[in-house]
Amino acid sequence: MVQGQKIRALTFNQRWREIAALTLNGYIHVFNAETFRQTLSRKLPSCQDLVCLATQESGMYAIGCKSYTLLLDCRTLQSIKKITSRYNGCGIRSASFRGDMLTIGTGLGLLMFYDVRAGKYLESNIHSSKTVTLKASRGYVFPDEEADGYNQVKYVPAIYTHCYDDSGTRIFTAGGPLPAPLIGNYAGIWQ
């Protein structure tokens, strides 16, 4: 592994007993979980603001960055698909798989659903191209911090993490302010 680079995200690939690490300098490194020896490493193609990493047990990694989610083959680290975000400037902040459903959390407080098998975002109905989303509530922001100029801008918490329960019928989401000077938090359960 490249020395001195900070790790931004980790995920465990149970099927192949591997740990994948995403670094700030744009690399993904894969290690054998039993020996901790590096097995693969790859510089990612022009990704900006690498933030999150998720594993699909059937053989895919999802990497969230500034404006899209990149799907990689777990065995070769070759790109499978680039999923452009439906919302400009949202920044992908979290990702998780539930079977063939990739769930994407954003810096705009939106949770989006992408069907990997169908190759498209879930839409609200057949005659509409409106993407199905869940929108986070305001959450909590420390009042003194809002007074520093952010109260003129409508605040929405970023969704920094999310996961499904074992039944797949509920999603836990958590996060907080995207702007660094703000202090706060957000958590929600969707049923």
From TrEMBL:
Residue ranges of coiled coil: none
| Pfam families to which the protein is assigned, alphabetical | Beta-prop_DCAF12
Q: Where is the DDB1- and CUL4-associated factor 12 beta-propeller domain?
A: 4-190
Record-annotated membrane-spanning stretches: none
InterPro entries annotated for this entry? Beta-prop_DCAF12 (IPR056151), WD40/YVTN_repeat-like_dom_sf (IPR015943), WD40_repeat_dom_sf (IPR036322)
- Domain of life the protein comes from: Eukaryota
The protein's name is DDB1-and CUL4-associated factor 12
* Species whose genome carries this gene: Papilio machaon (Old World swallowtail butterfly)
Taxonomically, what lineage is the organism? Eukaryota, Metazoa, Ecdysozoa, Arthropoda, Hexapoda
